[in-house]
Amino acid sequence: MSQLFARVVRQAIATFDRKNVASFNKNFSVLKQLVDQLTPCDINLNMDLTTDEAFSRVGKAPVTYVNLMEDEEFEFSVFILRSGFTMPLHDHPVMHGILKVMSGSAMIESFTKEEATGSAGQQLLYDPDAVRIEVVQDEPRLCTNNDESVVLTPTKRNYHEITAVGGVAAFFDILSPPYDSNIPFYGRRKCSYYRVIPRNGESGKRTLERIPPPRDFYCDRGNYEPPDFLRA
């Protein structure tokens, strides 16, 4: 059993428990520091899933999805991308997330929404009917298992695409709350996909236009043997 992974699970429970909202920022920072230390061995990831051979069979999806655990407040998962494949640009509506590369190299390109306010003056974090979204492009990051995790929040780096560079890449993901969870004011949220439109004369600023789910992006599921403490 990985003591570190058990600590990550306990810290995630404390972080995303709505009773602990007053200490959220401190708890989230501790959670990130723990995730920074994770290795494939800690989470009991089947490394056979991360080889070129695993993606060579006929009909294999370009992405393998491994569900580690999920409850109403958060989900843990691993995504394994075929060499050269890009997980298309997508959003994380009103979510916090932590992404840690487990093996290989991944280029992460993120975008942050320009601030927008509603009629009552509150900041609009998510508009399910928006077709175009004004954003600022963040500095791209090439990450390996030796790098710190990457963080997204409801207001920062909430749109991203991920490319496996130079071979198969696998990354561990925490998202809170999970997609489809029902949260106050915003309701249930779906994952949406986008294409990038540059804005003339505005360096670093882009427009994201919502598109249908790309046909070349689909996943199959990888087997997972959870540690004993997750079986309880």
Automatic annotation (TrEMBL):
It comes from the Eukaryota. This is 2-aminoethanethiol dioxygenase. CDD domains: cupin_ADO. InterPro entries: PCO/ADO, RmlC-like_jellyroll, RmlC_Cupin_sf. GO terms for cellular component: mitochondrion. Pfam families: PCO_ADO. It comes from Hermetia illucens. GO terms for molecular function: metal ion binding; oxidoreductase activity, acting on single donors with incorporation of molecular oxygen, incorporation of two atoms of oxygen.
